């Protein structure tokens, strides 16, 4: 019944006086009493947590993923293991990306007791980015890496979810050569990272923006994607559903009123199959 939170701690380095950021993991019991706090700092630059999951291996592991600077303008994905009982730091795995812009993971998903997967945005060069998906075992050994987007100007990952049917689902946003943006949802095979299918959603005018934000999955492996789409005047909330083979089930938009920007932040599905979208 204990629970943990993760985030970023900022501290001033006593010698140089520059700012350093480190991963911070805190555990509280059910009454709010702090049980322990643990940290990860690589080389005195920038480390930040993005997401975490509990891997029910033997022994169990809290796996935290985030980004870590190896130099200004050079960013790795970093995944760090912590003992859920003591906070002792365990395995660490880093995955390098191209230098230039910002690379970071966006989500982490446990692979049962076997390990976990991490998805994010990887800089290839300059402003060119791809979606990157990595599989790790419970010892933080990298099993495979899959990337998507080589033929596109730029693609950014936004969320990761497992459909509990042998697939990892990544949502993202494609920047197109015509200046527009498309929402994209990609289904990767769980065990080797090969692409099972991919779907895109454009704005009514394909030169305008449709950007993915979050994705969820129900118990029947149906997917629910939300994002924002420009209608020519302002942004609406767009929410769509796909079945496990990539067939679109429905697409809905929400517009509060003329000249209002409506933007989602999160999506969930309840036990009855109702879809909940929160936004601004």
What's the short story on this structure?
With 280 residues, the protein is mainly β.
Structural description of this entry:
With 280 residues, this protein is an all-beta fold. Helix content is 0%, strand content 62%. It has strands spanning 3-12, 19-28, 34-40, 47-55, 61-71, 74-82, 89-95, 104-111, 115-125, 128-137, 142-148, 154-162, 167-175, 181-189, 195-201, 210-217, 223-230, 235-242, 248-254, 264-269, 275-279. A hairpin with a 3-residue loop joins β8 and β9. The protein is globular. It starts with a strand and ends with a strand.
Low-confidence stretches: 8-17
Task: Report the C-alpha radius of gyration, rounded.
Answer: 19 Å
Helix content percent band: under 10%
| Cα distance spanning the termini | 33 Å
List the total number of helices: 0
Shape: globular
Strand sequence of the main sheet, in spatial order?
Answer: 4-5-6-7
- Structural class comes to mainly beta
What letter string, H or E per element, gives the SSE order? EEEEEEEEEEEEEEEEEEEEE
Query: How many β-strand stretches?
Result: 21
């Amino acid at each position: 019944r204990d629970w943990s939170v993760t985030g970023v701690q900022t501290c001033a380095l006593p010698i140089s006086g520059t700012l350093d950021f480190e991963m911070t993991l805190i555990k509280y019991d059910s009454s709010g009493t702090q049980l322990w706090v643990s940290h990860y700092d690589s080389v005195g630059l920038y480390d930040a947590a993005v997401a975490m999951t509990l891997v029910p291996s033997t022994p169990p592991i809290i796996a935290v993923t985030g980004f870590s600077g190896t130099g200004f303008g050079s960013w790795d994905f970093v995944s760090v293991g912590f003992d859920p009982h003591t906070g002792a730091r365990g395995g660490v795995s880093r995955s390098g990306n191209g230098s230039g812009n910002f690379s970071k993971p966006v989500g982490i998903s446990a692979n049962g007791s076997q390990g976990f997967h991490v998805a994010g945005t990887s800089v290839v060069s300059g402003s060119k980015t791809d979606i990157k998906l990595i599989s790790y075992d419970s010892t933080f050994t990298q099993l495979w890496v899959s990337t998507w987007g080589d033929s596109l100007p730029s693609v950014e990952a936004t969320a990761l979810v497992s459909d509990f049917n042998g697939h990892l689902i990544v949502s993202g946003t494609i920047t197109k050569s015509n200046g527009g943006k498309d929402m994209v949802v990609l289904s990767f095979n769980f065990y080797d990272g090969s692409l099972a299918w991919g779907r895109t959603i454009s704005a009514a005018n394909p030169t305008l923006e449709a950007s993915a934000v979050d994705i969820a999955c129900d118990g029947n492996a149906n997917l629910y994607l939300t994002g924002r789409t420009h209608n020519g005047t302002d942004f609406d909330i767009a929410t769509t559903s796909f079945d496990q083979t990539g067939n679109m089930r429905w697409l809905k938009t929400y517009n509060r009123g003329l000249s209002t920007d409506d933007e989602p932040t999160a999506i969930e599905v309840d036990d009855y199959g109702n879809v909940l979208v929160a936004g601004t």
